Amino acid sequence: MFSEHSLSSAIGEPFAEQNGLVYSATKVIRGKVAARYADRITGIYETGGKEIVNEKNIEALI
Q: Considering 4, 26, 34, 54, which has the largest number of Cβ atoms within 10 A of its Cβ?
């Protein structure tokens, strides 16, 4: 699993109560996370989605 630091770096923002991605008990609100990151989640399953040189993966790192 990702550590909190590496996940925040990959996503670009922390999963926090303030941005509505977790409950006060620090449980992830899956529906909100899925909706917010739908394009990234879909991209993982596309042809070449797991390749480092994939255009979407490079954009996410910049």
A: 54
Look up residue 31 and give its two tokens: 């529906």
Instruction: Give residues with Cβ within 8 angstroms of 19, minimum separation 6.
Output: 13
The predicted pLDDT at position 45 comes to 83
- What distance in Å separates the CA atoms of residue 44 and residue 57, rounded to the nearest whole number? 9
Using alpha carbons only, give the angle 14, 17, 20 rounded to the nearest 5 degrees.
90
pTM assigned to the model: 0.60
Instruction: Report CA dihedral (54, 56, 60, 62) to the nearest 10 degrees.
Output: 70
Query: Each residue of 22-56: pLDDT tens digit?
Result: 888 888 888 998 898 888 788 778 887 777 777 77
Report the amino acid identity of residue 26.
Answer: T
Is residue 11 a contact partner of residue 17, using CB atoms and an 8 Å limit?
no
